Amino acid sequence: MKLRNKLALTLLLLLGGALAGRSQEMERVRFNPDYSFRDVRLGYGRLFMMEGGKWDASLVEGHYTAMFWQHLAYRVGAQFSPDLPGYGSLIGLPAALVYRPGTMSMQESLIYAAERSIYDAAWSGIYWGSLDGVGGSVLLNFLTALFRRTEYFVGLTPAYLGGNRFLLTLDAGLVLTIPIGRIGLNVSPTYHRTLTRSFFDDQGNPCRNLFSITGGISYLF
Predict the structure, then answer these.
(1) CA angle, 133 as apex, 128 and 136 as ends, to 5°?
(2) Where are the alpha helices (DSSP H) in the chain?
(3) CA angle 80–174–188, rounded 5-degree value
(4) Which of 11, 147, 155, 201 is 20 to 30 A away from residue 74, measured at CA?
(5) In 3D, which of 217, 213, 95, 107 has the Cα closest to residue 153?
(6) Rounded CA separation 65/151 (Å)
(7) Does the model's pTM come out above 0.85?
(8) Can you give the residue ranges of every domain in the chain?
(9) How far from each other are the two terminal CA atoms of the chain, in whole angstroms?
(10) Is 217 in contact with 176 (CB distance < 8 Å)?
């Protein structure tokens, strides 16, 4: 084989090896929850009015989230509630800025839960002189340890009520996730502050405070 052909073959082999290694590295980073932040989420729960003529209604939502800089991401989606008492259906298009500090490993999460349990037991023994109720605290600490990823968000949701009334809310909340590979089981409590005069109590005063909580499933890709 001529020297030129040998050099060309060597370069091709080196290039192929580099590309293969780069591809594997990109695949590892892409699907690592600590680096990847592109996912879709579907959730179902309840929407509550917190004042005035109190009511609650079912809520279905779907979101797409993508990271754009370090731990920051944007989130867009859709919400639907078919049965708001006295208002009909609600269709919303939420958009939010999201901050995710990272995903704890199971070992880190369990160590944190153990530290919290020891602290709770010590505090109960010193301050109250009794360990009554510590078992429930320990159980709660280890249950919450399963939620190893936390996302915080703030955003706006423009929406229509009954098809002809405009609603705008300022939203702030979090998403607690149990990661299982690319799948996430999560719960999301959210506070909504209405910026429009859309809901009213029996005396005609505007109601400004709403709260929602949904449970859902997400897929990381």
Answers:
(1) 145
(2) 3-30, 106-123, 134-144
(3) 45
(4) 147
(5) 95
(6) 11
(7) no
(8) 1-30, 39-103+148-220
(9) 46
(10) no
